[in-house]
Design brief:
208 residues, globular, Rossmann fold, Tubulin/FtsZ_GTPase_sf, 7 helices, 21% strand, GTP binding
Length: 208
């Protein structure tokens, strides 16, 4: 069996991951109790992304991490809370005030070992990990830190990123463009394929 692991980094990545897992479950006939209903045309390649337990439940090869607790709490209390294993939902103790350097070099350092430990356990539970999907925004120092560790520990595995770039007309803080520029540097060095998502374009699609 081959597996692809999903890593959701900070708020943007976790929100993107929630939407993707909701879509996966709808397509594969998996209900909120993580049981697969009988539907026609099931895609068994889907099981590259999930593990089926002996009781017929589906658990994603997925971990989500953020430095503040609120986003993780939203996942735990959301409609698909039973899908993710609680140990793979990781949070730190404080926000970084939209500061990439603080996120990457100080506060993030306190969380990365826990992220790496959970990821190692996830890999050990797999038969043959082929690669990683990494999703997140472009202002996250923690996301860049995770990429650094992946490059060291799993350098021969394929890493594909889904990055959301900020909306220029609706900045939530003045340093967002600088954070995105710093994050892009790590993307160039640490990831094989980047699928860039323009928040402005996504916003326009949602308004159609």
């Amino acid at each position: 069996m081959r597996e692809v692991l999903t890593i959701e980094a900070v708020q943007a990545g976790i929100q993107l991951g929630n939407a993707i897992w909701e879509q996966y479950c709808a397509e594969q006939g998996i209900d909120n109790a993580v049981k697969r209903k009988e539907i026609a045309g099931k895609d068994y390649f889907f099981e590259v992304f999930v593990e089926e337990t002996g009781s017929g439940e589906f658990v994603p090869y997925d971990t989500a991490s953020d430095l503040e607790q609120n986003v993780i709490d939203n996942v735990k209390n959301g409609p698909f809370a039973d899908i993710s294993h609680p140990e793979l939902l990781i949070h730190g103790k404080e926000d970084t005030a939209n500061n990439f350097a603080r996120d990457h070099y100080t506060i993030g350092k306190q969380t990365i070992d826990k992220v790496n430990d959970r990821l190692r356990k996830l890999v050990n539970n797999c038969d043959n990990v082929k690669g990683f999907f990494i999703g997140g925004g472009t202002g996250s120092g923690l996301g860049a830190l995770i990429l650094e560790r992946l490059a060291v520990d799993y350098r021969k595995k394929t890493k594909i990123g889904f990055e959301i770039y900020h909306l220029p007309n609706l900045l939530t803080c003045v340093v967002e463009p600088y954070n995105a520029l710093l994050a892009t540097h790590w993307l160039l060095d640490q990831i094989e394929v980047s699928l860039l998502l323009d928040n402005d374009a996504i916003y326009g699609i949602c308004q159609m």
